[in-house]
Write a structure and sequence with these properties.
With about 325 residues, this protein is an alpha/beta fold. Helix content is about 35%, strand content about 25%.
């Protein structure tokens, strides 16, 4: 089979190589899946760079989220077992963790439903307890993680403010349903949020960016607001001033979705049932900006690494439903 493999750490476009290798062999409790579509996540770029919390042995195949097909023809969503990641024709995955791909979504959309949307549900509801009528501020609202949070916030009845970088991404955020879009390149985020909320600030702030985005969040979070930390796409990990959180009475909460697979795996299945229902109702639908063939996967991972994409970039293998 064909598989993209990283033989040394570095930038994805430079270190990923398309190899012909044997199919992976399932271990105990695992199944072999034919990959139909693989969603590219920012962690795939971090894996290539050797900067992710998990460092699989070289050479390895990136790709942490797929829509695949079982030997009996079922469409499923899975997280491949590294080092045999999803940017390949076949993967192995834990059988107990397989989830049915929603009928309402095609292969690319199903591949993009899992990590980003589960992170959104757990972050917004389990960690931040977002309520109907509250104001939700989403950083990188036109990106893969942010776009999911925007849709989930609207589905929950929140007023959603999206922060983006540039007019093209602003247009995408408006199409997603943001009630207000702030272009951080040309607008003052803090002033715009305070003006839009009558000086109160945002009740929940969803931050997959870190760095300066977090600094701005702390200045425009509401009394008893919640800042949800879900990642550091900027490459800068902020150092919160805890005295500021004390003075303003707001909470800083972290969300590492992967821990739920260890601590509370049943909650992931319940969340998937909720997402499947929302997809069937049309309340959520992964924004797929690019669908690329397997041969172009390395360049696609590099674009995600560079932050030039909107929504999700998905790699399709031969025979995927488009």
């Amino acid at each position: 089979m064909q598989a993209w493999r990283v033989h040394e750490n570095g930038e994805p476009g430079e270190v990923m190589r398309l190899d012909d290798i044997d199919r992976p062999v399932p271990g105990s409790g695992q199944v072999l899946l034919r990959v139909r579509a693989a969603n590219i996540n920012f962690p795939d770029a971090l894996l290539c760079r050797g900067q992710y919390q998990i460092r699989p042995p070289l050479p390895f195949t990136p790709g942490v989220e797929i829509c695949g097909e079982t030997e009996d023809g079922r469409r499923v969503i899975a997280n491949p077992a590294l080092p045999h990641g999803g940017l390949a024709e076949y993967v192995v995955a834990d059988e107990a963790a397989l989830l049915p791909a929603p009928d309402a979504l095609d292969d690319a959309e199903a591949a993009a439903l899992h990590i980003g949307y589960q992170t959104g549900v757990f972050g917004l509801h389990r960690r931040a307890h977002l309520q109907k009528g509250e104001t939700l501020l989403v950083h990188a609202a036109a990106g893969g993680v942010g776009s999911a949070a925007v849709q989930l916030g609207k589905a929950a009845g929140a007023r959603v403010i999206g922060v983006v970088g540039g007019p093209e991404k602003a247009a995408v955020a408006r199409e997603l349903g943001c009630d207000l879009v702030i272009d951080r390149r040309s607008q003052d985020i803090v002033a715009a949020v305070k003006e839009a909320t009558g000086g109160r600030g945002a009740d929940v702030i969803y931050d997959p960016v870190g760095g300066d985005a977090y600094a701005k969040s702390a200045k425009c979070v509401a009394f008893e607001g919640r800042i949800v930390i879900v990642g550091f796409a900027s490459g800068s990990v902020p150092a919160p001033a805890l005295n500021h959180a004390l003075v303003k009475n707001y909470s800083i909460v972290g969300l590492h979705w992967g821990l739920y697979a260890q601590k509370d795996p049943a909650s992931i299945a319940r969340c998937h049932d909720q997402l499947t229902r929302l997809a069937a109702e049309g309340a959520i639908k992964p924004l797929i900006s690019q669908r690329v063939p397997l041969k172009d996967a390395a360049a696609a991972v590099q674009r995600v690494a560079d932050g030039t994409t909107t929504g999700r970039v998905v790699v399709l293998t031969e025979g995927a439903a488009r």
